[in-house]
Amino acid sequence: MEKMSRVTTALSSNTISGKTMFCHLDAPANAISVCRDASQVVVAGRNIFKIYTIEEEQFVEKLNLRVGRKPSLNFSCADVMWHQMEENLLATAATNGAVVTWNLGKPSRNKQDQLFTEHKRTVNKVCFHPTEVYMLLSGSQDGLMKCFDLRKKESVSTFSGQSESVRDVQFSMKDFTFAASFENGNVQLWDIRRPDRYERMFTAHTGPVFCCDWHPDDRGWLATGGRDKMVKVWDMTTNRAKEIYCVQTIASVARVKWRPEKRFHLATCSMMVDHNIYVWDIRRPFIPFATFEEHKDVTTGIVWRHQHDPDFLLSGSKDSTLYQHMFKDATRPVDKANPEGLCFGLMGDLAFAAKESLINSDTNRKPYAGGDRRNPLFFFKKTDPTEQFAHVSSALTIYETDFDSNHMDWFVSTAQRYLLSGKPFAELCDHNAKVARELKRPQVSTTWTMLRIMFSDPANLPAAGLNHSLSKLGSLPLMNSFSLKDSGLGTESRLERSKGDNRQDNIHLEAGNSHISNNNEENEETEGSDGPAECMFGDAELDDDDLYSMDHENQAEEQEYTLPQEGFQLRHEIVDNPSAPEHFQQDKADSPHVSGNEAEVPCLTPIESFSLISISQPLFTHHLPASFFCPIVREMLSYYAEQGDVQMAVSVLIVLGEKIRKEIDDLTQEHWYMSYIDMLQRFELWNVSNEVIKLSTCSAITCLNQTSTTLHINCSNCKRPMSSKGWMCDRCHQCASICAVCHHVVKGLFVWCQGCSHGGHLEHIMNWLKSSAHCPAGCGHLCEYT
Length: 786
Description:
By secondary structure, the chain is α+β, with helices and mostly antiparallel strands. Pathway: Protein modification; protein ubiquitination.
């Protein structure tokens, strides 16, 4: 009781004063701790272990605890704790697994008091009990927690979390309860008097939990921080741990400390990337309440100077500096915050927030039907104005869109029906074009069709040459543009050819003939066919790209045309072409079109328009390389993205793959992917989102479905982690996944109860729970299948 009375130190009688100051250390610090009267601070690290006196103007080195010519690994500290009841007692956690206590009252230079070497791996944390003077707790990388009685030379109890390494242990301000955080994301609550089993366990974070801290006033509140960049506050007074506040930070949370005398304030620092120290008001988790930006490297330790003074914060860092921060000198991020905001809703609604002074001038603005829904600021007592958030009031304006004109059913249907892989490129384009066409999106459908034409393999397309089948010319609209001016000559020619050949395939080129066309079935000129004139313009067929027609408005200027003799000389150069009909060779002498006399050449009168270009080779390469189209495809993708259709941009990126990927920078691709994935997840299209992530070529995207998916498997018998793959536990040599219904090993889909950990085959468990609510393993637990 004598030592208990020494704990109560009236802050009013010994007011702490000082300023923002720092001192350089000999080496980077891993942890710091302050004595109970706030006059001294101890700094510990791998190569430093010193005590500094905190004066009003500076830090003054008082004692160096690293003594000897060759200091042992016991001086290499991962954590340090100064006893809050016994001012001469320190404890350190060594990197070699030792727990060391130090007595500053010893007259010798070496202040080491006791050495405990029961841990097999690095000790991450040591903690003194707030009221029991001789009780010390440690948490180690070996997954064990040990309680030491400083009057004995060994631990009095060992706590096994049946999990991976212990990252932090903290005694509660009441009773004998302590909290332990683990590498697998769990937090366990233990009673120091019952080392055989924890009282409660819950999953706090999706990754390792690096730190925890009990609230000094609300004793049921526990703050935790983890690698998932979150700080969570849990209410432990209920039957199940309840998350009541959550703060999202920008980096992994390494330390968390509640601010004295401020119920809703806590301080955090990061393990990497971010060097700043943040003080958060957990009621306003989106922006820090205050920021300390002095450190140039990662902050490794933070502690409030006195348990009843909220104005002084001490910190150590890997930049080998020790700082004292005054709260009035902190940066207030809210002063730099932008009071304007803009956001689109899922269905296209637009919300815009701005200062009330700007919005109130808008006379067309209608008040919200629900009234003023601004929340007041909550303060449990009237405090100094510097302790309050800056009062910035913004008015929210919502622009709603007509639901019928802006529904997003097409987006969902397109995402579900599009094919992005698994078939040849041409089939993917055709399928996606069909989907877009059925959803009445003709521009998108045409885009897919054009992509197929531009990027398909030429080997898969029909050859485009000069020597096609003869009949294709018959389908050209050019053929109906002519009629014989001298109708008698045309009639006579037909009669003569009819008599000489006894054939029915007469050439009808008359003014009343409006159009001549052939079907694919009539492509071959055979005996007795009623097709158009064979080889009318020579054996070489004119392709669509080689055929040009004049405008109709030129019809008045050019009334008559004659076919020059040179236009028919090609017939004699390629008479041996096997594609020409044999009977055509016999008709050449009788044909009126092969006469050498210019006067016998019939004149043609244009009906609509006429142009004939006779060439012996194509004007350009029929199949351009795919790279030729890349610039226009890149512009097309940018157009769709700027219009908000990132679905089209991402789908084309995936389907084209390497054909277009190098044409677009990685940051732009990543931005498109993230936007599309965000929309898919907002529509709860999880499978489509995962497929897009899997098919992405951006490294920043492919890793999205590989995070937060770690599965830790423990043996159902010995409760230890499974160290190897398979169904057999290496420690107890029993099968870990036994079905509680059929008692066979589950080698496929396994379902288990999170309450009792028993499970089995999915079908067996479903059938069992249809007729019984109790666990099939006989443990008595009431299992639920949801």
